[in-house]
Amino acid sequence: MRAALRVGALVAVSAATVAACNFLVRLDDGCSRDDDCPAGQVCNVRRRFCAVPVVEQCNGVDDDADGVSDDRENWGNCQAEVRAGACGGTRTCSQVSGRWVLQCAANNAEQEDICLNGIDDNCNGVVDDGSECSVNFSPTRGVQIGSNNAADGEGDDAPAHQVCIDQFVLDRYEVTQRQYAIFLSSLAQDRLRIERPTSVLNSTVTYGKYVIYRNSAGQDTNLMFVPSRPGPLVLQRGEGFWQSPSTESEKLPVVGVTWFGAAMYCSWAGKQLPTEAEFFRAARGASGTRPFPWGPEPPSCERANIGVNGPDGGACVGSPVAVDSLDMGRSTEGVFHLYGNANEWMYDWLDTNLTHTQNRYYESLPPTPLAPGDGGVLTNPWCDRYPQGPLGPDGGSPISQPENAGLYCQNCRFARGRHYRTVDTRIGIRRWLDADRSDETVGFRCSRGGAPRGRVEP
Question: Rounded distance, CA 428 to CA 150, Å?
């Protein structure tokens, strides 16, 4: 992991000497993880020292003291814009007219799509959409949404009802830090700032610092939360670009992203956030009643990264793991981490009563089941009203948070899928949040196809 000069752990030299040579003498702190370091510092595992993290700049100086000059550094992939015919490329740092400049060197021609690299290799206007990157779900009738068993969720999952869903394509993996960093890097950097938002959706809760994007109309959008302490889940901002804090964290799911930040990424990538109906189809099978994505076996640490079942009875890991890990936990169709690792934003609003014991949207149509043996001709009220699949209610409702004397969310969106800290292993549990707030356990993945829905463009 890149790190700053540690006070007391280097030979004092002049600023000019540091700029020219950057000679360093480091003390071995013996650290092996960030928790071994003082607050505000992280562990450079390769060199075993603690330091405040520094992002390498394209300036001819070895800012991170890794012994690699700027023109030989790996500056990562880049994707200036996503549209058909616009391939991604690689960042390079070089001198132009005596100045060090970071540039995006585009690929000369389309290539085979590489999963999880955050660029559109095959130039078709969609990021990471190769056959190994996503799973196709054919049109499905009779997917059960919700449950009549109060023990399956929070009590607002009734009545269970069957829906019809058009063909859609779902990302095989959760969106990673690397992918999201490339998205942030593609935005106009003068429109991004990190601060506490001045206008929020829920005034009864406290907002921390967020990455805020201001569009051409002057409207601000919270994209992701920025913790005060650096760590393996916190993206770093360089001069004109963003990156994961280390190569080890590039495949971790990006978390702390708001609904707006997730929806904007999916639109930029040529995709959209999945609906709750699509999530049920992917996670719980064609009937919507499969106990878990992988089948009937109960969750274990070999299948799901959650907060129980670990070797000491605690969490499996206690933090997110790579999005392509835990092969035993793949769904029957081949999608990773639909349960565990990170909660995932749904496209839908959540409309319940204040105490979330009734789901007004689920109650909006009769739960009449599909008629068996109708040859695909007869439907039910849900399929009649939403033949391509339901998109959820037109708006969210408030959910009470009595312990904080306020509202948990004022106009609720929600996430599903459970997460790396959960001790409640019921698959039906949601995570409620306003669209401009985030949580360190909430990430997302994207989909394509299905019922047409609104987009959040950068």
Answer: 10
